[in-house]
Amino acid sequence: MNDFLNFSYNALNLLDNQIHDNIKGSFIDNFIHELQDYLKSQENISILNNIPKNANLHFAKFEGNYAICFDYSNKLIYNIPKSCIKGSQPEIGDPIKVISSNDFRIDTSGIPANSDNIDELINECSYANIPLNVNILSELYKIIDIKTDFAICKNINTNKNENIPIDDIPENTDIGDTLIFKNGKFLKK
Description:
Elements: H1 2-23, H2 27-49, E1 57-63, E2 66-71, E3 76-81, E4 95-100, E5 103-106, H3 118-123, E6 126-127, E7 139-146, E8 150-155, E9 160-165, E10 178-182, E11 185-188
Parallel strand pairs: 3-6
Antiparallel strand pairs: 1-2, 1-4, 2-3, 4-5, 7-8, 7-10, 8-9, 10-11
């Protein structure tokens, strides 16, 4: 399922990047954005399913329909849907107990984080991603130009240019070739 989610989300981003200016504000544009939001929420559900039951989360703030919680020991931030916060509403710094992937509660036996430095604590963390052991679709790159130290490549999934060190590019690669980033290295397609 994660492969399908990633493929769909990447394909929608690519489509949106290519045609957004032409369809901005239209029914199709709104539909694409709603579908992107849905796929992102499904990815978030996958992330929540992988939170260890003994994780020490703390509540930072509400943002839209999500409670922003963080695990300072693992330096990870989680977007937890408000509907998954059971019991009383948490206050800044409250410890959060993971009951299940859709049941998070204030941990009355836990130690709260200092609410005065929540921003500092959360700035040291990054958002959780789908675990690495999940099979994610490969990134595709098209070589635009080759310089002495790096190749300028367009990431086909995000439609953004990136500089890739020349030592990471396979031999006999030319401008216009497509590369696949898989298992930590670039391969010629």
